[in-house]
Amino acid sequence: MFKLAVVVTPVEAVFEAVAKIGKLEEAAAKAAEYGFEGIELSLIDPKVLSAAKIESVMSEYGLEVPAFSTGLNFLHEGLSLSSPDPNVREAAVRRLKEFVDLAEPLGAGVIVGLMRGRTEGRVAKEEAYRLMVESLRDLCKYAEGKGVSVFFEPLNRYETDLVNTVEEGLRVLADVGSEALKLLLDTFHMNIEEPVMEDSIKAASGKIGHFHVADSNRLAPGMGHLDFGSILEALKDAGYRGYLSAEVIMKPSFEEVLRKTRDTLRPIISRLSR
Question: What is the distance between the alpha carbons of residues 164 and 9, in angstroms, rounded to a whole number?
């Protein structure tokens, strides 16, 4: 039915909803110990880890990499698909194509979240959106040729003013017009933006490529007030059968996040699988 993953990064990141690790092997060992099937890697420079190295570590611990998260490129380097500066947009697309190259041999997807950017300076929101769509078309054409999926993530209004809801995300898919482009839905963002999360999930039926889980407070599932039984049932009804990737604040510890996520979601997955 669903498999569990956790988001980790080997770099010193300013983003708090990710586990900061020293070595990939350490995170893989812990994820496997707690019964997870995958690790989602959040990177700045995709060239810091080779596909061969990642595959070796994942194989050793029986894990997969469902996706590469790219938002640190916006937070640390300002790379944005909607920037009014064409040089910045070109650099953003170029960096994302490098992620596609890394993802291809691993069968992973590439996430576009914060790297879509936000409205800047005197540029109207409509123009920023147009630039974003133009950049995504370039990226997705490249991804199609590599057989790699691009996961576009609606984000809450406090992180960007471009594409906050599932409905707006579906418009992006229609405007870009690429089979490579799918939605990444995130329970933390949906809890802020969607009137009824389950209805929005079902509205995206057949368009969901990846799924992030976090509770209402962005802590691990089970540490807030979201009804994950209802959420995962809607996800099942929407035809999704992929990873539930925990992108959460790592408190009180990485191990406790793994334990709480597993203990909250595994019984639900088992029930829905009957």
Answer: 25
